[in-house]
Specification:
The complex is a heterodimer.
Chain A lengths: L1 H8 L2 H44 L2 E2 L7 E2 L3 H7 L2 H33 L6 H13 L2 H11 L5 H8 L16 H26 L3 H9 L4 H12 L1 H16 L3 H6 L11 H11 L3 H29 L1
Antiparallel strand pairs in A: 1-2
Chain B lengths: L1 H23 L36 E7 L3 H14 L3 E7 L2 H12 L7 E3 L4 H6 L7 H7 L1 H4 L2 H5 L2 E2 L10 E2 L2 E5 L2 E6 H6 L9 H13 L5 E2 L6 H13 L2 H9 L9 H16 L11 H9 L5 E5 L3 H8 L3 E4 L12 E2 L2 E6 L6 H10 L3 H9 L3 E2 L10 H15 L3 E2 L9 H13 L5 H17 L1
Helix pairs in contact in B: 2-16, 10-12, 14-17, 18-19
The chains are: A mainly alpha, B alpha/beta.
Chain lengths: 309, 453
């Protein structure tokens, strides 16, 4: 009651300030909404990242007082031949985690998207399933399948290829590829899902026009679907490349870097340094170098995707 | 004590905030915000100096016990202990092995550190930081030298840097012991013409060749994880003088693994691999899977530890046997590789007497029964009823090794990075990708660089 009375009798100047204040509030109001998420993001993502970079400047075992060593951990990182091998392995994994799944995803999209069929949801669900299973469970299962008497070898024996059966994860030349195939299996569903979703937003007029011009399924795919999916392909490539370069769980569970050092990846080395060898500073330095490498590669991918537009 | 605890509690968050602040302004007062360093210096007085008491206070006490091996066994152990000491309650803190090892550093340096914790290799740094109680006083007061096997207690001693073992202060007591050796399938052995378990290394080599001639897989080695290491270590233990091996694994200055006898033992290992004595795909097969293979009659011998004995006895009954890696000649007592599930006391505990009583309880008859049922070899061997079959053979191998003090620490105890280096190196040996001498040099480097740090 008193409120209405005041408003009506308020001088014009006060109303202006109130409006100005409220417009300032409006501008900031958006930030209040994101504040909870922002706090979590800063606390659990941004701060730990900077803290890792900070730790990389120390010689620290994780228990006693750390000693400031400046950039000498980085000097050690770049002189370690183990790390070069690990980075090389991670780059090979990029082919299996990223390129092959994208190709498979595109093929599946080409097959599934042209016509509406019954049971599409079921197909999509089945193909997306590997994404839902935790990678550790995936690793344990594949380790079992790759055994001397595992399902993979049983299948080979069934079709008469007894000669090539082996304990795949223990083979010096093939273990890395065997690990890579697990990644292919896990990532293909994700790529296909992204592309199928992308295809749905493509204007059907484009397909109709292409068909009127006499384009076959292949031509239609190459000249309509593929260019329209550029954005999705860039996203898929970014996500899967990061997964390959930062891979840890699959390798840790299946081979733990073996046989010899044939399947070591940088993530595994970070883990070993920090948790078993008690060289937290050096581990942090490897992690920072790995993050920089990933950022650089992701930057290149996104530049390529943009310039192609 | 209580005051210091309070001070430390305040200090900690401040230090952490400081760390955050100087992450942004690098260069400002760096020494002040170095990570870690919740060093236990202030707590030096909690280390018992002079005589300690075996008297357990009458008041109600709650102890926490952090551990990773044998949750069911530990539950029964604590129950038996609480029956003996009704005023003490033990809260069990179980963590899975890999998580346990990872979290141990943080856990033991926190304000809520457990009073008792299962020993793990990472304890080295905690010992150096004064977080683990030196048990010397209790050793004398309780007469542990009489109660626990010397060889197992030696494995739990170290100097104050935590890097050199087998000497200095006692930081834990053994509860259940483990030991590796060779299992064999009696039916298959007979089929290959092997009538007696080999008593010398030469006889073993002969038996492996016989098994191969009979068209059988001579020995299962699970080199995807630790099986290869166990076999290699068994050969090293047999060929190398005990003192030399212990100097190496314990971190004694000058300890070396590049000697001629080490090369000879490693060459024997690679010769076996090359001759095709190992299961096909040894590098891609884990220890547990080799045990299954062995149980299914796919190999004549198996390298594994006492932890597999229960499963093997159950599945194979009288058809399975066990022996330690035989010595070079008949007169040489065999040597086993082994370690113990051991418990340590935090130097932060407020109830050292109660915790010591629990450690002492590990040598009791009640504990022996529980530990034996849990699949480990109890320290108090007299308290356990005679086993049968392969279990009895494991027991007798263990007893002879204990009596003759011929149990050697697992080789990965030489340095924190050793396990990974050994696993990958031995896989390379099996695949013929590495020469024995190069392998030994690589593991020697890991050890040396650890001690240089």
């Amino acid at each position: 009651m008193s409120g209405t009375a005041t408003t009506s009798s308020e001088p014009a100047g006060a109303a202006v300030t109130a409006r100005r204040r409220s417009s300032g509030w409006r501008r900031w109001r958006g930030y209040v909404y994101v504040l909870p998420a922002l706090v979590f993001y800063l606390t659990f993502a941004v701060f730990p990242a900077f803290h890792t970079a900070y730790l990389s400047l120390f010689d620290w075992d994780g228990v006693s007082l750390g000693v400031w060593v400046g950039l000498s951990n980085y000097a050690e990182v770049f002189s370690d031949p183990m790390l070069y091998g690990a980075v090389l392995h991670a780059l090979v994994l990029v082919i299996f985690f990223s390129w092959i799944p994208i190709i498979i995803g595109l093929l599946m999209t080409g097959l599934l998207s042209r016509h509406r069929r019954r049971g599409m949801t079921l197909f999509r669900l089945l193909l997306f399933l590997p994404q839902v299973v935790p990678l550790v469970a995936v690793g344990v299962t594949w380790r079992w399948m790759y055994q001397q008497d595992g399902v993979v070898n049983q299948a080979f024996r069934l079709i008469g290829l007894d000669g090539i059966t082996r304990a795949w994860l223990g083979d010096f030349d093939l273990a890395l590829y065997a690990v890579g195939i697990i990644g292919t299996w896990a990532m293909s569903g994700l790529c296909m899902m992204l592309f199928l979703t992308g295809v749905q937003k493509v204007d059907t007029d484009l397909y109709e026009a292409a068909r009127l011009d006499g384009a076959g399924p292949v031509h239609e795919f190459v000249s309509v679907t593929l260019p329209q999916l550029r954005g999705e392909i860039a996203v898929a490539m970014t996500v899967t490349t990061v997964a390959a370069l930062a891979s840890f769980d699959i390798v840790y569970v299946t081979t733990n870097g073996g046989p010899g050092n044939q399947t070591t990846v940088p993530g595994l080395l970070v883990y070993r340094l920090a948790f078993t060898e008690g060289q937290v500073g050096l581990a942090a330095a490897v992690a920072v170098v790995l993050a920089a490498l990933i950022l650089a590669i992701v930057y290149v991918i996104n530049r390529l995707a943009r310039s192609a537009e | 004590m209580a005051d210091q605890r309070a001070i430390r509690g305040v200090n900690r968050p401040l230090r952490r905030m400081g760390a955050g602040a100087c992450a942004l302004v690098v260069g400002a007062a760096l020494a002040a915000c170095a990570p870690g360093g919740s060093a236990n210096d202030e707590d030096e007085d909690s280390q018992p100096e002079g005589p300690v008491s075996t008297e357990v206070p009458d008041e109600d006490i709650t102890l926490t016990l952090a551990f990773t091996d044998g949750p069911e066994m530990v539950e029964e152990l604590t129950a038996a202990f609480e029956e003996e000491y009704p005023q003490i309650t033990i809260e069990e803190q179980y963590t899975q092995f890999s998580d346990y090892v990872q979290s141990l550093r943080l856990n033991m340096t926190s304000d809520s550190a457990p009073d008792i914790a299962q020993y793990a290799v990472v304890m080295k740094e905690l010992v150096a930081n004064g977080e683990i109680m030196d048990l010397g006083g209790y050793r004398d007061a309780y007469g542990w030298d009489e109660k626990f096997p010397t060889v197992s207690m030696d494995q739990l001693t170290s100097d104050e840097s935590g890097k050199v073992y087998g000497t200095g202060n006692l930081y834990g007591v053994p509860a259940g012991l483990s030991l590796t050796g060779l299992y064999y399938n009696k039916e298959l052995a007979e089929q290959a013409g092997i009538t007696e378990p080999p008593t010398t290394l030469e006889e073993l080599e002969q038996a492996l060749a016989q098994a191969q001639d009979a068209g059988l897989t001579p020995i299962s080695v699970g080199a995807l994880d630790t099986g290869g290491i166990h076999l290699w270590a068994a050969l090293i233990n047999t060929v190398m003088p005990v003192e030399n091996y212990r100097d190496w694994v314990n971190g004694v200055e000058g300890g070396t693994m590049t000697s001629d006898d080490a090369v000879a033992a490693t060459t024997m290992f690679t010769d076996w691999a090359e001759a095709g004595y190992f299961n096909e795909g040894a590098n891609g097969t884990g220890q547990e899977d080799t045990t299954t293979e062995f149980i299914n009659g796919e190999s004549v011998f198996l390298i594994n530890g006492n932890w597999a004995a229960g499963q093997i006895a159950e599945e194979m009954g009288d058809n399975a046997g066990f022996f330690l890696m035989p010595g070079q000649d008949n007169s040489a007592e065999p040597i086993g590789s082994g370690f113990s599930v051991a418990y340590t006391m935090s130097s932060r505990t407020e109830h050292p007497e109660a915790a010591a009583a629990f450690l002492d309880f590990m040598a009791s008859e009640q504990a022996a029964q529980v530990i034996s049922d849990g699949g480990f070899l109890p320290v108090n061997t007299e308290a356990v009823p005679e086993q049968e079959g392969v279990l009895a053979e494991v027991d007798s191998g263990y007893q002879s090794a204990v009596e003759n003090e011929r149990i050697n620490q697992f080789p990965d105890f030489a340095a924190p990075a050793m396990l990974d280096e050994l696993t990958s190196g031995i896989q390379s040996l099996i695949a013929g990708q590495m020469e024995p001498a190069a392998f030994l040099e690589s593991i020697q480097n890991v050890r040396d660089s650890y001690h240089e740090q």
